[in-house]
Each structure stands twice: as structure tokens, then as C-alpha cells.
Amino acid sequence: MKKGARLVLGKDDDGRRLDRVLRIALGNLPLSAIHRALRKGDIRVGGERRDPESRCRAGEVVEISGVVLGPGQDLPSPPPVAPAPALPILLETPDLLFLNKPMGVLVHDGPDSLEAQVRAYLAPSLQRSLSFAPGPLHRLDRNTSGVIAFSRSIDGARDFTRALRERRLAKTYLAILEGPIGAGVAWRDLLVRDGDARDSRVAAPQSTPGRPALGAKEALTEVTPLAVSEGYTLAAVALGTGRTHQIRAQAAAHGHPLAGDRKYGGHPCELPYYLHAWRLSSPGGVLAGLPPAVEAPIPYYFIEKVRELFPTGKIEVYLGLEKR
Length: 324
Fold this sequence. Notes:
The protein is of the alpha+beta class. It folds into three domains: about 1-70, Roll (Structural Genomics Hypothetical 15.5 Kd Protein In mrcA-pckA Intergenic Region, Chain A); about 90-165, Pseudouridine synthase; about 170-190 and about 220-320, Pseudouridine synthase (2-Layer Sandwich). It has seven helices and 13 strands. The strands form two sheets. Strands 4, 5, 6, 7, 8, 9, 10, 11, 12 and 13 form a ten-stranded mixed beta sheet that branches. A three-stranded antiparallel beta sheet has the order 1-3-2.
């Protein structure tokens, strides 16, 4: 049990509601308990009582004198000092960090995850904050490679998330799909996520129009074939929505599973599947300090597979890169 502490509000706490910052900083302490402590004066800011809805100011000191913290409610401690990992950085701004995620690396969970590596890398340069920690701003499956964005500040997290939600950021993947696709196509489906099976599926058509399956969410994916050979298609895949396993589930449902994706009905290959988050585009300067697009170099094993399956051309030609 612990009682009493002094915490300093950081830049990323500035302007946020005091009770919301304390809820994060005090690790799951009930909001009612935080409100009660503020009301009694057991939590003070700058030596004064504050209302729960008052706004934080960077540099102010929060004094906690009468709040008893139990297991799992420890106050934040400084991050451990560790050698910064060699991250595959594509672009770094004051607010955002873009990486080229390798295949086989988890984004979340565990000391070897990309999230843990990013936090260790940023620890020496980030100001302390009670309510903010850098983290991934969108998802990539373990065996999907390519561009992924992390927040370096709360402003970066807010701006990026808002732009993504408003579809002012475009994500384009490269995929090797089973079966020939002769022309561009848009897949618009309803996806249902099965948390127990950890997969997604396209909902069956409903007998009652206008009543989607319980928990179903719209998924929109645009597929542009770049090269076609007997039995396979190299495609640029643009996401209109961001559902879990969206590309994998829709591709399988439309008869074109990712090459190697046995979880979704694909035939076995050398790798679990071939999917690379190639480009994250922000046309028109959606986010300050970003170029029109951030691209992740295509992995060598992906290029080798393209050369094997589509021997009549070079991948640089398929992607329109030779003229750059």
C-alpha cells in the first residue's frame, strides 16, 4: 500500500481534464474515488484544490496526500534506461514516428513487440507525461510487413487518428492473391469478428434487407491488379475502412485468398502469406511535416516471389517506380 506522492504534469497533459489525467496516472483508481479526493483536498494541484473538470497546465505539481493505492494502482515510475533498439525508421517528426515493420514481429504485447522497442527508443527524448505514452496508431498483423505509424505526442495521436477516421489518409498494400483478377474491383462487405476463433468473416446475406448480422461492420477494399499470371495476381489493395483481417477475410470470401494464407483458405507457401503495407498517403498536406506519401521498401522475399510468379516483367515496372 502506498500513500502520498508528488507528480509533475507534462507537455502532453496540458489542456486535458484533471480527472481524466489522474485516472490514467493512478492506474485504474475509480473515477469516483478521484473526485472524492479532489473534493476533500487529498489531491491538490500547485497547493490548491481543483475541480475535476479543471484543465491541466504543464509544469504544475500534483500533490497526493490522502489517497491509498492498492495492488495494480502504482504511481507511474520513470521508464527503465536501456540501449535504444535499432528501429527501421522511415520518417520521424516531432509528433509521429513511421517504421517499416518486419514480418513476424508483433506490434503489441511483450518485451520484444514493436511497441516496447519504440518506447525504449523514445524514452530518452520524450518529456514525462502522466497521461500519455507513445503507441501504434493503427494495426498490422504479425505476418504483415510495412508502414506503421506511432505517436510521439498526444497532438500527433489526435491528428493522425482524426485524419484516419475521416478517411483523409490512404493506406495501400501490395498483395499476392490466388487466382487471376483481370480488372479493378471494389469489395464492399459486412465483416463479423469472431474473438474466440480470432478471425473475421464476411457476413452471409440477410433474409431481411437492411438488417445486418449482429456485430457486422462495413468493410470496403479496392483491388487494382498490377500483374496476372496463371493462378496468381499481384495487386495494389487500397483500404476504405480498417477492420481486423479485412484484406485477408474479404480476399478469401471473394475467391482470392492471399497466397499462403491457410487460415483463410489459401494454399501453403514458403511464408504465412504475402501482404506488405506499402504506402501511407496524406495528399494535400493533411498532417504537418509529412510528405505526400510514406513508403516502405518492399522486402526481398516479396520481390523474389513476384519474380517467380510473374517472370515476364520487373516489379519496378508493375509499381511504376522506374520513372522516378
